[in-house]
Amino acid sequence: MDRVSIFALGGLDENGKNLFVVEVNEAIFVIEAGIKYPDSEQLGVEFVIPDFTYLIENKERVQGIFITHGHDDVVAALPFLLQEINVPVYTGALTANFLYDYLKKEGVSKFKIKKIKRTSKQNIGGVEVRTFAMTHAMPDNFGIAIKSDQGYIVYTGEYIIDYDMIQKEYQCDLNELSEIGKKGVLALLCESLGADQSGHTAPRHRIAHLIEPIFESAQEGRILISAYRQSLFRIIEIIDVCKKYNRKIYFHDKELRNMLGLLEEMGYYKVPREMQLSDRQFSDDLEDVVVLISGGGKNLFRTMTNIASQEDERVHFRSSDTIIMASPIVSGTEMEANKMENEIYKENGKLYSLSPKSVLSMHPSIEDLKMMLYLFKPRYYLPIKGEYRHLIANANLAVSMGYRPDQIVILDNGQIARFENKALASVADHLKLEDTLIDGKANWDVTGVVLKDREILSTDGAMIIGIVVDFKSKEIIGGPDVQTRGLIYLKDAEYIIKTAGDMIEHCVINAVKEKRYDNLEVRAEAREKISRYLMKETGKRPMVLPVIMEVNL
To answer: Which of 130, 146, 165, 182 has the most CB atoms less than 10 A away?
Structure first.
């Protein structure tokens, strides 16, 4: 029988950074390549991507990368992965059109994108791969079924079940799901973020009925409304409400305008020209207008903060504005969101935030998850995507539907589930993984040492001690000069400054006297002694930077 392995390089016990791997014999299939936003202690890190080491080491076996939709948590790490392995990317029509521009913008010059239908069947690397249409916040979303003679390995992607969805590009193909289930499913990978939410997600993902009363009460004034750029379903709802109330709309974000342009080109949705205000037509003095502010992750809240603090180039907040936060706070953006709210309230702003309890993101709730189990009837169930508590909630849901605990597989990132003869053979093997931290888009792989240095600088400050010595004789001819930042107030601690200077002098003099002088070694010795002294005197561990300049006279 076929050898089957399933594991994740990201997306387990965390929100985002999704990347799942399915191996059938020698063929490797990669599903998603996303980012997550950093924790607050990861100073200066913009986002985190998976560890690609295994895929790079086995790149000859990788048959393709499947991207189910265009959200950051499943696609934004793709440029970094394609710089390491040049394999085809299979995705839907809208996401493909988006990726052409996105990859070029990110500096990826060589890539192969293959558009596939939402419901399709193809042979890739000698393995049958089926896709099936699913409903999510972006059009053309799909799930994946990879065939083996042990049964299909099914990945549902991110989805909801919405029986009122009439747009074809959003609809779910339940017949195809049932057909795959009848042929036999070995393992079902299903997301867990909403596994503790009762009922179906639909219709609680819709917001029009919640924002219409706000539009009604703000008929004369200006409305600023924010939403994540990639939540296209929600953005279209906002535009339709603007249309209903005969409001002109200004799109603050150029990238959203481009995305809406793609929707129009594909015939999915068209914003009436007479509704839109261009940059030339828009003025910050206009009253009866809606400003739609969009962005991704932290940047959305940073933009709103800039507007509230009068630092945005195009839009300046005024107290008569009505502000609607139409997208919930996601993990890793809490600090920026709180700062934004504070700035708005300081300016006496009217802020309406849609509660995450009344407005759900487009991820499956309990009844949506149950439907997948009913339709696919898998031998094994693998909860994915979410913190550990979400994975457990998803597992408990499967138990409530009659699945035995030994049929439910909760993995860690890097832990490999191996299947033989239609049964789980082992979960003992682990890949050693380290998150890759992106420090802006130019520099990546920020190490733990760099983060530790940033943490020290932010809490305990720094001390720089400089001294000048003669290159030949190693005699001290200048200094010491001591500077501190964020450590102590100099006038209150002159004795500390003098002692630190004396310590580096003694290190140099003793090393020369004992004929063991080496610039690097003496600096390391001075750093260690001064650090211990500062800890004893101040209770802090600042970054100590000894500098010994050698001058050839």
So the answer is: 146
